Amino acid sequence: MGFHTATRQSRTGIATLLLAVLSLLLMGADSHFAWTRHIRSALMSALYPVQQVVGAPVRLTRSFSQEVSDHLRVYRRNENLERRVSRLRVANQEMEALKRENARLRQLLNEAHRLRRNVSAAQIVAESPDPFHHTLTISRGKRHGAFPGQPVISPEGVVGQVTAVAPLSAQVILLTDPNSGIPVLTRESRVRGILAGTGNKNRLELRYVPTSANIQVGDELVTSGLGAVFPKGLKAARVIKVVRDPHAPFAEITARPAVPVSRLEDVLLLDLGGKGPGDQIGRQAKGDGS
Amino acid sequence: MNWTGHVVVGLSLVAALGLGSIPLADPAGYLWPDWVLLTLAYWCLAAPQRYGVGIAFAAGVFQDVSTGTLLGLHALTYVLAMYVLIENHLRLRLLHLWGQTLVILVLALASGLLQLWVEGPAADLGANLWSMVPALTTALFWSPVFLLLRSLRQRFAIA
Predict the structure, then answer these.
(1) If you average pLDDT over residues B29-43, what whole number do you get?
(2) What's the rounded mean pLDDT across residues B109-127?
(3) Which of B1, B36, B127, B139 is deepest in the core (most CB within 10 A)?
(4) Residue A194 neighbours by CB distance under 10 Å
(5) Which of A5, A10, A19 to mutate to test the interface with B (most CBs of B within 10 A)?
(6) Does residue A75 have a pLDDT over 90?
């Protein structure tokens, strides 16, 4: 019995020794020779199905959780982007408004340059609700140099004139007001008349034009410079209707204002006296012209 | 000849090899125990006259291929570890499960250090000491592996 045990144990010992030496030889061979590559690749292909089978649940779980987390991430990202888009859309709208305002102001500035006068821009802060009194309140007053009778224009043409000034604001009577009348002439045939308001914001009357005068639908009416309120040559209106009654001394002429006064936002106040450098040139040019 | 027994032992080793090669994320990868060592240890303690250093050598070579270590490195450590177990199997069988756990810990640490010594001289020792952590988890997994394989052995009447 004891002998048997001893034999078995020594057998294990010998096997261990042999296998350990074999392992060491294998390690040496693996680190120095290339042929162990073949053993490795053969064993690797034997292991491959096992790894596939055992790893399958893990891979499955992982791909599933990956899928879920991807979904969540995409969802969250989408939410964020969605929020950002709406924020940007709001910002974009503001930008759009600013752009429009900028274009408008640039136009005003160009007009000021063209007139070679000192102008100051003003915003419309209030409008008379009375349909027969077309007046505006603007954001420039005595403090800013506004004075009664000051011409108010826009890039499209004549708007009206200042009637009353407060320290920080002024009242403007529009050329469509029934009490307004400005001296004008037709650009082509130089026929004079008084452009008077009717109380309708889209209609003006050209008064005191003789029936025989050379005036037609479509003629442009510009300020004549008479009356010393408006400078010469500002667009005021366009003739839309001419009615000639042979028994009346004057023709009945209807015109549409050049400025859509009901849609105004910004206006220019024209300085008549002129303190800026542009004024000198302006007067010279006018002098040359006449 | 107990063919069912051989098949069960072979399958358990194959499963251990497969488990060891599951690709894992970092924290689990550092803690993943040496399943092959545990399985070999159980069969060598349970049936040392049938499963011994030879099967340890074969499983070790496969483990080398699977982990990409030097061919023969795991084979050597498994052969030496199993030799220690087989030489002392009568004494070890009498030990409580926790005592066996301690023995497994010592064996796993020794095999880890051997691998470190063979493979890691060029690398930074501080970082390589992390490779000792699986020895701890290997020891902790001894009890469940022992109980599972014992139930298998009793069901299939191996040895």
Answers:
(1) 88
(2) 73
(3) B36
(4) 17
(5) A19
(6) yes
The single-letter DSSP state of residue B82 is: H
Question: From the CB of residue A92, how many other CB atoms can be counted at a distance below 10 Å?
Answer: 11
- Residues of chain A above pLDDT 90, percent: 19
Q: Which of B17, B18, B72 sits opposite A23 (nearest CB)?
A: B72
The tens digit of pLDDT for each residue in A23-66 reads 999 888 888 888 888 888 888 888 888 888 887 887 888 889 88
Beta bridge partners of A267: A122
Q: With a cut of 70, say whether residue B159 has pLDDT above it.
A: no
List the alpha helices (DSSP H) in chain A: 2-32, 36-115, 277-289
What is the arithmetic mean of pLDDT over B10-34? Answer: 81
- Give Dmax (Cα) for chain A: 157
- CA dist., res. A73 & res. A275, Å (int): 66
Q: Are A153 and A136 in contact (CB under 8 A)?
A: no
| ipTM attached to this prediction | 0.83
Residue A191 is encoded by which pair of tokens? Answer: 């026929």
Give the count of domains, chain B: 1
CA distance linking residue B17 with residue B68, whole number of Å: 13
State whether residue B140 sits within 8 Å of chain A by CB: no
Q: Any idea which fold A117-274 has?
A: Thrombin, subunit H (2.40.10)
Q: Domain of B90: which CATH number?
A: 1.10.1760
Residue B82 has pLDDT above 90, yes or no: yes
The pTM of the full predicted model, rounded to 2 decimals, is 0.52
Angstroms from A45 CA to nearest CA on chain B:
10
Structural domain boundaries, residue B7: 3-156
pLDDT surpassing 70 at residue A103: yes
Domain ranges of chain A: 2-62, 117-274
Q: Does B67 touch chain A (CB under 8 A)?
A: no
Question: What distance in Å separates the CA atoms of residue A283 and residue B84, rounded to the nearest whole number?
Answer: 117
For residue A108, give Cα distances in angstroms to A112, A113, A119, A138.
6, 9, 9, 15
End-to-end distance of chain A based on CA atoms, in angstroms? 145
Distances (CA, A) of A191 to A103, A222, B27, B28, B84: 35, 10, 96, 98, 127
